[in-house]
Amino acid sequence: MKTYLATGCAGFIGSNFVHYMLEKHQDIRLINLDKLTYAGNLENLKDIEGDPRHIFVQGDICDRELVTRLMEEYDPDYVINFAAESHVDRSIKNPEIFVESNVLGTVNLLQCCKNAWYDADARTWKEGKKYLQVSTDEVYGALGPEGYFTETTPLCPHSPYSSSKASADMFVMAFHDTYGMPVNITRCS
User: Fold this and answer.
1) Is 138 labeled as catalytic in the residue annotation?
2) Packing angle of the helix pair 160-179, 105-117 (nearest 10 deg)
């Protein structure tokens, strides 16, 4: 049985991911860590209440002790980070909150994964483990009336929100480049 630790899954995108995964796979366990801020709503998960494959944990990705406990207790195969402060207007008013959640929260998740999955002496990762960062196309900046972004488009964020997401992405890449951590980054639009 594969185990997923997915963060921010009481929000719109994350809750749809939870529903998709539980519908598609009968043999998984999904730990859902969500702080339940303005973007999280338990109503999004009401119809799967009681499903033993879905374990909801209210908490913050910045909480090192909590994330460490979840890594130890459930030994997830995948950590998928949907959790984020995401409203551009809110980021303009309070950029510090975006740095805390989006950057420091991501670094905390990465560090907890490294602590759980990496053997520093052997410089090897546990087989089958992976971290997935759910980012945004806003890290590329403004497109204009025509054209498209690709994976090779340079990052050019223009708001505190997109800057915090780009910063988080850079930390994910740093953990990959420095430690060889198995990662993927998605930048959906």
Assistant:
1) yes
2) 20
